[in-house]
Design brief:
By secondary structure, this protein is an alpha/beta fold. 13% of the residues lie in helices and 26% in strands.
């Protein structure tokens, strides 16, 4: 499987190593990220793993590109002020990823706490479990996502360290295939992110 790495530069640090890396920022339309993956996927006959490196608000939004990846936001939640031209604002952006259906095998959300369910927010904004489940269903891909803080390193290029805390694997129909509780080992890369799926 070929890795397609997407890094939002708001994380800081250098460009990740690898042949297939796309760096984005708050001015990059989400459509560019989606299209880049489709072009790269065609080169590798759909045998790709998409790794998204970005900040996240626990259970709310993957802060990638101008819109992020999120469910519909309530009016009380500011998404981006002012919203950039072409922004989808409060509308859910998960559905925008439907072109990835059948083109991506696995999506790894390498960001803090995105699968976390905020207390009192089950079934809507703040329900990271629902967000990850819907992303898996829309793309018909496996989605791997954490509920806890994650670490990166800029030693020898920017890269994700090992999974920490609770990590969930969602199947293409949105069901949770497995849950694993990783130990927290700050600064140590023990290879624990090489997890099975399927």
């Amino acid at each position: 499987m070929v890795d397609l790495i997407i890094k939002d530069t708001r994380l800081g640090g250098p460009r990740p190593p690898g042949a297939n890396v796309l760096e984005v920022d708050q001015n990059t339309p989400i459509s560019w990220l989606i299209q880049w993956v489709l072009v790269q996927s065609a080169r590798y006959y759909g045998n790709v793993r998409v790794q998204i490196m970005a900040h996240a608000s626990e259970g709310e939004i993957v802060e990638v590109c101008s819109d992020g990846i999120h469910l519909e936001a309530p009016k009380s939640v500011p998404i981006m002020t002012p919203a950039p031209p072409g922004s989808h604002g409060r509308s859910s952006t998960v559905e925008l990823f439907s072109p990835w259906r059948g083109k991506v095998k696995l999506i790894e959300l390498l960001c803090c706490g995105i699968a976390y369910i905020q207390p009192g927010h089950s079934g809507g904004w703040g329900d990271g479990n629902l967000l990850c489940m819907k992303l898996a269903q829309i793309t018909q891909a496996y989605v791997l996502a954490p509920t806890a803080h994650q670490d990166f390193s800029d030693k020898d290029g920017f890269h994700f360290l090992n999974w920490q805390g609770t990590v969930l694997l969602y199947g293409p129909s949105g069901e949770v295939k497995w849950v694993h509780n990783y130990a927290v080992h700050p600064g140590r890369d023990d290879g624990s992110r090489n997890v099975p799926f399927g």
